[in-house]
Amino acid sequence: MLAALRALRRGAEKLTRAPGVPQVRSYAESKATLRKLAKKRELDEVMSRTQAVFKTYKPVSPGIRHLRRPLNPHIWEGRPVVQLTIAKRKTGGRNARGRITVRHRGGGHRQRIRTLDFKREEPGVHDVVRIEYDPGRSAHIALLKNRDPNAQGMKKWSYIVAPEGIRAGDSVQSFRQGIPEGFIPGLDVSRLNGTVGALEADEVVDESVMSRTAEEIQQELEQSSSQSLALGLLRTLTLKPGNVLQLRLIPIGTVVHNIALAPSGPGVLVRSAGSSAQVVGHEASRYTHVRLQSGEVRKVLQDCCATIGRVSNPLWKNRNLGKAGRARWLGRRPSVRGVAMNANDHPHGGGRGKSKSNKHPVSIWGWGAKGTRTRKPGPKGPKNSNKMVVRERPRGHSKRSN
């Protein structure tokens, strides 16, 4: 009888271990498994999500009830390279006489200014060591290390505005002086450097086959095929986010940022978080047309340089500080309404009770506010006076229609 019971138990154990039979687990094991599955599902949802991803907090206090921050798990949490920073001496918006010349500034946490390389004059490959937070700008910054073993000091390390999508371990390169010789074997680089829009051409060899034999034509076709492959490889290696190229070499439709206005100058346009510009055309002369973030199309010299890609941290504009104290930590003082001031402090001030004396809204200096146009039109004013502007930024109905 005992032997029969043991055989019956062994048969039941074999049956429970069968592939088609569900395993019986304890309550703790089932709960731990469900927790792991929930974490994995949540991580998969976050990684596959395409809309804005923000970090929110449980409202245990009013200061964090509306706090919302973009998720940036790739940001370095340590301190910056001290040699690439300088101390920031705050003035609180005061001039040398101690009077407020810039309103709504003062206080804030102590900061150090990060010195960024906007020129990118050092050639060669640079490795991205990490992505860092910069308190002085909305975009993130990337720490680069020069692969050249002979580079010393400031040429070894540098900060740049981080393009969107770049991460630690990637590599960037500066082609400010043009494509170097021998960069792509079998490709005539000297001809490319002098050609406008060279990277968007399909062929870089002479296609004339008149008065040639069949063998010469076959040899020319083979050479043309190899040149096309070399040109495609050149596009792949150069048109990467973070690389610097002259505008003459950038194909039409490419998204760029950190655009210089002088051939030997630093990048001055399109440097804030999430901003970008687009190359829309090349003139036969020495200018390239670039559409800026505002929609304005302007001319830029083709010898000027730009960085491929758009600026990082595009969700910065949708963040919510949550409380006034965080604005004070950033060095921003309150903005007082004019109707809450005295008559000698603001045109809207004074009166018995709430009154702005039945006037049109104006600023503290008497300028028209809330819709009043203050920009002088015509060639004598700022509008239409810049000869480099091909098309003004859209305003009014044209802006709303876009």
TrEMBL record:
User: SMART domains in the record, alphabetically?
Assistant: Ribosomal_L2, Ribosomal_L2_C
Location relative to the cell: Mitochondrion
| Chain ranges of the Large ribosomal subunit protein uL2 C-terminal domain | 239-368
- The chain positions of domain Large ribosomal subunit protein uL2 RNA-binding read 93-174
InterPro entries, per this entry?
A: NA-bd_OB-fold, Rib_uL2_dom2, Ribosomal_uL2, Ribosomal_uL2_bac/org-type, Ribosomal_uL2_C, Ribosomal_uL2_CS, Ribosomal_uL2_dom3, Ribosomal_uL2_RNA-bd_dom
The alphabetized UniProt keywords are: Mitochondrion, Ribonucleoprotein, Ribosomal protein
Q: Which GO terms describe its biological process?
A: mitochondrial translation
Which ranges are annotated Basic residues under compositional bias? 349-359
List the molecular function annotations (GO) for this entry. Answer: RNA binding; structural constituent of ribosome; transferase activity
Q: What is its main location?
A: mitochondrion
- Listed GO CC annotations: mitochondrial large ribosomal subunit
Annotated stretches, region: Disordered: 339-402
Purpose? Component of the mitochondrial ribosome (mitoribosome), a dedicated translation machinery responsible for the synthesis of mitochondrial genome-encoded proteins, including at least some of the essential transmembrane subunits of the mitochondrial respiratory chain. The mitoribosomes are attached to the mitochondrial inner membrane and translation products are cotranslationally integrated into the membrane.
Q: Which family does it belong to?
A: Belongs to the universal ribosomal protein uL2 family.
Quote the PANTHER family the UniProt record gives: LARGE RIBOSOMAL SUBUNIT PROTEIN UL2M, RIBOSOMAL PROTEIN L2
Q: What protein name does the entry list?
A: Large ribosomal subunit protein uL2m
Species assigned in the record: Mycena maculata
